[in-house]
Amino acid sequence: MAESKEEDLSQTLYSVFHEGLELFNKVSNTNEPMNSPEVQMDVKKAIANLEQATRLVSLADIFSKNEELEELATNNIQYLLLPALLGFLTAKLTSRDRKEILDVAEIYLKDFLHRTNDYKLSNYKFEMADEGQQEKSNTFKTEFEELAYAVNTRATKIQKYKQHKELKNHLESLKKNVENEHADEDIKRQYFLTMLKVFIHDVVDDLESIKMEKPLLEHMAKIKQEGLPKPKRQPPPPLKPIIITKDKIQKAVYGAGYPSLPTMTVDEFYEKKIADGLFPDPSKPKPSNSPMNLQQASLAGINLNDEDKEAEDLEKKIEEDDAEYLERLKARDEYRDEHRRGWGNRMNRS
């Protein structure tokens, strides 16, 4: 029974993940404007699928900080891409504050690099919050040092570009082999690992872009605040990242640097509604003559307010001896006297 549940979870995770991955590829390769309603709908669908996949990965306890890359099952390697995919897709949202979008995208992208660092797939160095300010205040570069720094930086970028291009070409050739139904485990593993390495390059580049864009957004927001009155409209609820965790997903706390997102289970939600008197208590038997509640009426498609109003109107007509209503009742009784039940079509019988 437990094995069956694990298989169902694995199949659901695979299906949800690949549906989100297909939408990600569709959005990444589209020629439509990113702010078009159709593209934004695909972005949101992809995010929803990949968030669900993230919850399922947490539920299945697929990843652990104590394990080595060699211990990771081949099919599970692809799920390391989840925070990177969510980071890229979040950055493509256009219906929210850009600064808020970049903050959440940055959390996802850094989480991806933390995980690839843990599995020795990357060696990204995370900057401390005040490291940049200390560099500016404590160091002074001569003109020669600045020139040497620029040359080295350019050489590094060219080298990274070449590596990235080689990895993408290698990934394309591996993809053809993986699509073959007879592809062995080693080919699949190599394909997933190469895909991760391609994404590592893309994520590092995107983090650099975010780093440059955020100060501009902060400056523009400051100018806007000084020149315009505060809007009266309520801001939308903040974006919250869904991070892979080993804890029970409904009670997850995502560790240092990530917001805590306590949520209720379905059972807890229903119990709370019963305690509040909004839902019926299934443990207590319902009297046969008890009136129908609003929830039951809604499920049955009945409007209780309309029924009560109709009964009141009929009672009022009888009390006031409404001539038209009484005439209708009389005609109905006469019709029933003359047309007994079953006197209709007697199938040619006498």
TL;DR?
The protein has 350 residues and is an all-alpha fold.
Notable features of this structure?
mainly alpha, elongated, 63% helix, 12 helices, single chain, 350 residues
SSE blueprint:
Blueprint: H1 2-28, H2 37-60, H3 74-77, H4 82-91, H5 98-118, H6 131-138, H7 143-178, H8 185-227, H9 266-275, H10 294-300, H11 304-319, H12 323-338
Helix pairs in contact: 1-2, 2-4, 4-5, 5-8, 7-8
Which series of helices and strands comes N to C?
Answer: HHHHHHHHHHHH
Number of helices: 12
Percent helix among the residues? 55-70%
Q: Poorly predicted ranges (pLDDT <50, ≥5 residues)?
A: 130-138, 248-263
Strand percent estimate: under 5%
Shape assignment = elongated
Largest sheet: none
End-to-end distance: 66 Å
pLDDT averaged over residues: 77
Q: How many β-strand stretches?
A: 0
Radius of gyration: 32 Å
Secondary structure category: mainly alpha
